Amino acid sequence: MESALLERLFLHASTHLPRPSIPAFLYGCAWKKDKTSRLVCEALSAGFTGIDVAAQPKHYDEPGAGDGIRRAITQGKIARKDLFIQTKYTPISGQDLSNVPYDSAASISSQVHASIASSLYNLRVDDDPQSDCNYLDSLILHSPLPTMAQTKEAWQACEEHVPHKVRNLGISNTTLTILEELYASARIKPSVVQNRFYRNTQYEVELRRFCRQKGIVFQSFWTLSANPHLLRIPPVVFLSKETNTEPAIALYCLVLGLKGTIILNGTQSHIQSDLESLDRVRNWAKENEYEWADTQKHFNDMIGESP
Fold first, then answer.
1. What residue ranges of the chain have pLDDT lower than 70?
2. Would you state the pLDDT for residue 20?
3. Per-position b or e across 223-260, b if 16+ CB within 10 A of its CB
4. Partners of 86 in beta bridges
5. Nearest CA-CA partner of 142 in 219, 216, 88
6. Looking at residue 130, what is its pLDDT?
7. How far apart are CA 255 and CA 9, in angstroms?
8. Which residues pair with 192 in a beta bridge?
9. Are 265 and 39 in contact (CB under 8 A)?
């Protein structure tokens, strides 16, 4: 793998997104509950430059994430211009009906607008609602809606906020068929797809190929939880030993080596060490380009990745 391409993949997954570039790791905020503020602040202080959250109180504390962001900025740990903030509109099917950030009886478009308004408030970095600092780098449709027509309605409502308050749009938990149809009809094309990376979907080989063709960043989640078997395969074991890193980091790095792919990392106990280990593997790969390329090819072959 060429050094320039390697640097691009490990530092900022290649994309047409405006600055800040989407980082290799996004700090995942799911299931952090009342620890969210502290962990987000710790992650940003340690060197993470992006967070992933959702307007879904059932699984995310979006106000807590916003508090953690503001604390990190106030403490001088990161500037808004260097931070990538991503959240989601979660359809009613994914919400706890006792705690929804919009009127569940409203139209889909109205739900989207209300959800975005609440996210902009929760994730604000300036208490002035008109501040140019209060925007979302990426807004994701958390899942397709029950029908394609409803999915398109939600997407079109999201488009109304681009580019002033929302810079990029994406979709999560999607199939290739839905993504292709959405891409074809959308005025603002998807910049991001966030899906599980696991054996049951053949590691999204075909969907990721489409994403590469269209310049869409693939955000991998469940990378560790769904793939304990991958921690024991030869390329992961080899890379782990060669770089003196945990198998989990070796797996992360090989997934990052798939073109146009980044990872959601929600670690609570290895925030600093994960970043340091990522840097260690990157440096090893630059100094051992042949071994890195061979290890990456071996990994790609084992997950069915085509050249």
1. 1-20
2. 61
3. bbeebeebeebebbebbbebbebebbbbbbbbbbbbbb
4. 52, 138
5. 88
6. 85
7. 10
8. 170, 217
9. no
Distance, CA of 264 to CA of 242 (rounded, Å) = 24
Structure-token pair, residue 298: 């071996």
DSSP codes joined into one string, the chain: --HHHHHHHHHB---SPPSSPPBSEEEE-TT-GGGHHHHHHHHHHHT--EEE--B-TTT--HHHHHHHHHHHHHTTS--GGG-EEEEEEPPGGGSBTTB-SS-TTS-HHHHHHHHHHHHHHHT-SSSSTT-TT--BSEEEESS--SSHHHHHHHHHHHHTTTTTTB--EEEES--HHHHHHHHHH-SS---EEEEE-SGGGGGGHHHHHHHHHHTPEEEEESTTTT-GGGGGSHHHHHHHHHHT--HHHHHHHHHHTSTTEEEEE--SS-HHHHHHHHHHHHHHHHH-HHHHHHHHHHHHHHTT---
Determine the pLDDT at residue 12: 38
What pairing do the DSSP bridges indicate for beta strands 169-172 and 50-52?
unpaired
Tell me the average pLDDT of the chain.
93
- What secondary structure does DSSP assign to 98-129, as a single string? TB-SS-TTS-HHHHHHHHHHHHHHHT-SSSST
| Dihedral sign of CA atoms 61, 66, 69, 71 in order | negative
Both tokens of 267, joined, read 């670690």
Query: Across the strands, what pairs with 141?
Result: 89, 171
pLDDT, tens digit, 9 for 90 and up, residues 71-116: 999 999 999 999 999 999 999 999 999 999 999 999 999 999 999 9
Please, what is the end-to-end C-alpha distance for the chain in angstroms?
Answer: 13
C-alpha–C-alpha distance, residues 153 and 159, integer Å? 10
Span 19-190 CATH architecture: Alpha-Beta Barrel (3.20)
What residue ranges do the domains of the chain occupy? 19-190
